[in-house]
Design brief:
- This protein is an alpha/beta fold and 355 residues long.
- It has 14 helices and eleven strands.
- The strands form three sheets. The chain has a seven-stranded mixed β-sheet with strand order 1-2-9-6-5-3-4.
- The termini are far apart.
- The structure holds nicotinamide-adenine-dinucleotide.
- The site of nicotinamide-adenine-dinucleotide has 32 residues, from helix 2, helix 5, helix 6, strand 8 and helix 7.
Length: 355
């Protein structure tokens, strides 16, 4: 049995661990369980989950719309009302079965319902397995601004079961892969080197890779659980990436952009900025740019797009007194947070991205 321990909760890998979850739920004698999922996961993931969960506790299933546009206050309100109507009390618990949207929103919903009830996380996307389910960040978007409302609330247990990836769209798999590349870029050169040539990666053994990412994220979170310092390095690619994601979310004529796709672009642009501010070797930058663009292709941004994207930067939670601060690299595996960056330099990053 593979298990990663955090100071607050265990992360178990593999189908056999639903028995551990079931035993824990039964022992705690929760009054009721709310299984929160989205409509896609309700159809594709819930049958497997329910077939393997041995629990005698009564449960209710609530589903939300799939995807990022549902990660908002209106959806939370609907879930809270359902919880009240279904009789969930202070001794109830939430289990999220879904991707990062379900775990971020479900974790937040649980963290404030009746001043906080327990939450268990069963991630069903690669992104949620390697990143969103670890570290206790919960939250929702506000008027398109990413993760503007939320809390640090640790789950009670996470169960990672790679079986769910069998039904996941390849584009969603690649979206999750971006966060794994990020883990390599900020923390582990040999991991990045292993992942960058995607054709050589053995996806038959994806659980080992997921576990490696979880260990890296967990290590960083343990050093700084509330993101006062070093945890910020996990935001590499996210300053620009979140601005791009918000712009696409708020613009109905734009095609959908997935979280990891936006982060992939953000990592290239922030690596470019790293060459200017922290002296990241330009050959290393080209290698980062080429390997990421090989996997994700190149998105075309017009001048008007870039101008609009830059306006979204003001919502970044790392900003201080209106100054944009981001995570930059001096080398692969060497990340530095709180680096002040001008809008002009970000613009140059977009220009270089488009070259
Ligand atoms: P998501 O939850 O929207 O899932 C992506 C899509 O895949 C959805 O349409 C969903 O219905 C579908 N899906 C989920 N599991 C499936 C399965 N097994 N088979 C088929 N389809 C399935 O998005 P995501 O990429 O998982 O997560 C993105 C979110 O995670 C973003 O909101 C991001 O901000 C957040 N995030 C949070 C953290 C954190 O630390 N809390 C870290 C990284 C990202």
């Amino acid at each position: 049995m593979i298990k990663v321990e955090t100071p607050d909760y265990p992360i178990y890998f593999g189908v056999e661990n639903y028995a551990v979850l079931g035993a824990y739920l039964n022992e705690k004698q929760y009054s009721k369980l709310l299984i929160l999922t989205d409509s896609t996961c309700n159809e594709l993931c819930l049958p497997h989950f329910l077939a393997h969960l041995p629990t005698t506790i009564p449960f209710e299933i609530v589903e939300i719309e799939p995807g990022e546009p549902a990660k908002n206050l209106a959806t939370c309100e609907g879930v809270w009302e359902a919880m009240l109507d279904l009789g969930l009390d202070r001794h109830s618990a939430v289990i999220t079965v879904g991707g990062g949207v379900v775990s971020d929103l479900g974790g937040f919903v649980a963290s404030v319902y009746m001043r906080g009830i327990d939450c268990f996380v069963v991630p069903t996307t690669l992104l949620a397995m390697v990143d969103a389910s670890v570290g206790g960040k919960t939250g929702i978007d506000l008027q398109g601004a990413k993760n503007c409302i939320g809390s640090f609330t640790m789950p009670k247990m996470v169960i990672i079961d790679a079986v769910y990836l069998e039904t996941l769209d390849p584009r969603e798999l690649k979206s999750g892969y971006a966060e794994m590349l990020k883990h390599g870029l900020i923390y582990d050169l040999s991991y990045f080197n292993h992942l960058k040539d995607i054709a050589q990666v053995d996806f038959g053994d994806i659980e080992t890779l997921i576990c490696h990412s979880v260990v890296i994220k967990n290590q960083i979170v343990q050093d700084d659980p509330k993101e006062a310092g070093v945890r910020k390095i996990l935001n590499f690619g996210h300053t620009v990436g979140h601005a791009i994601e918000s712009y696409y979310l708020s613009n109905p004529i734009k095609e959908r952009m997935l979280h990891g796709e936006a982060i992939a672009i953000g990592m290239i642009i922030e690596a470019y900025i790293s060459t200017v501010i922290l002296g990241l070797n330009s050959v290393v930058y080209q290698e980062i740019k080429e390997s990421i663009q090989y996997i994700y292709g190149k998105e075309i941004f017009s001048e008007a797009d870039v101008e609009e994207i830059l306006t979204w930067l003001k919502f970044d939670k790392k900003n201080r007194a209106g100054e944009i601060r981001m995570v930059l690299l001096s080398n692969i595996g060497a990340a530095f947070y709180d680096q002040e960056v001008s809008k002009d330099l970000i613009l140059k990053g977009f220009e270089d991205y488009l070259k």
